[in-house]
């Protein structure tokens, strides 16, 4: 149900309410049935941990390994341009 598409009278009827609001008995019943109308704070992880996770997911690890192999290839045979490839891979991950 999209309540914003209803007329005022239909919206009140669908919510079983009225212009005067809920009676005390109805408010207590709904409080017992549904609980308090409050937003609870959701636990979240620290921003630094969220940032660090960007570098350790599966595809990022593949890129880190590729960069490591490129730097190793440059170390084994210098001058082949593998260091440039390694830095490009690091920059893209």
Q: Would you kindly provide a written description of the structure presented here, covering whatever features stand out?
A:
By secondary structure, the chain is mainly alpha-helical. The protein has two domains: about 5-35, no CATH class; about 45-90, no CATH class. The protein has helices spanning about 10-15, 25-35, 45-55, 60-75, 80-90. The longest helix has 19 residues, at about 60-75.
Q: What is the β-strand count? A: 0
Query: Which strand-content bin applies to the residues?
Result: under 5%
Task: State the helicity in percent bands.
Answer: 55-70%
Alpha carbon gap, first and last residue: 45 Å
Structure class: mainly alpha
What characteristic shape results from the CA principal axes?
rod-shaped
Number of domains: 2
State the assembly state of the protein chains: single chain
Topology:
Elements: H1 8-14, H2 24-34, H3 47-53, H4 58-76, H5 82-92
Short description:
This protein has 93 residues and is an all-alpha fold. The protein has helices at residues 8-14, 24-34, 47-53, 58-76, 82-92. The longest helix has 19 residues, at 58-76.
Task: Give structural attributes.
single chain, 93 residues, mainly alpha, 2 domains, 0% strand, rod-shaped
């Amino acid at each position: 149900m999209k309540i914003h598409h209803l007329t005022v009278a239909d919206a009140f009827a669908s919510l079983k309410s009225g212009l005067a609001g809920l009676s005390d008995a109805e408010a207590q019943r709904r409080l017992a049935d549904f609980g308090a109308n409050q937003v609870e704070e959701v636990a979240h992880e620290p921003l630094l941990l969220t940032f660090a996770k960007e570098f350790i997911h599966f595809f990022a690890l593949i890129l880190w390994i590729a960069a490591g192999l490129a730097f190793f290839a440059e170390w084994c045979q210098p001058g082949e341009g593998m260091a440039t490839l390694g830095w490009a891979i690091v920059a893209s991950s």
